[in-house]
Specification:
Structural class: mainly beta
Strand content: over 45%
Strand order of the largest sheet: 2-10-9-4-5-6
Largest sheet: 6 strands, mixed
Amino acid sequence: QVQLVESGGGLVQAGGSLRLSCAASGRTTSSDTMGWFRQAPGKEREFVATIDWSGGYTYYTNSVKDRFTISRDNAKNTVYLQMNSLKPEDTAVYYCNTVVTGTTAGLRSWGQGTQVTVSS
């Protein structure tokens, strides 16, 4: 069973940057399409970005395009989310997950996430 642990969140001012990490344990995720999701207070969890197993294909929700970059290191079984030019509306708990093929839905049980708070 795969366990996903997110880290790297924190409090940052608008315009700042953070880099999130998602470490997988239990088995390798090197063949999985992986993604980042977020859930803001009072809102449903939403898709943010996805990356295929090779790292050659990425896809972003419109609100983070040109600001966020998803990447992966299969040797470390880790997926990253570099977040630049952060806005207050990016405030949320961020989660990673294996993505169901052909969709933007998470496949596995959700981890505890990592809190990102952007102050104005």
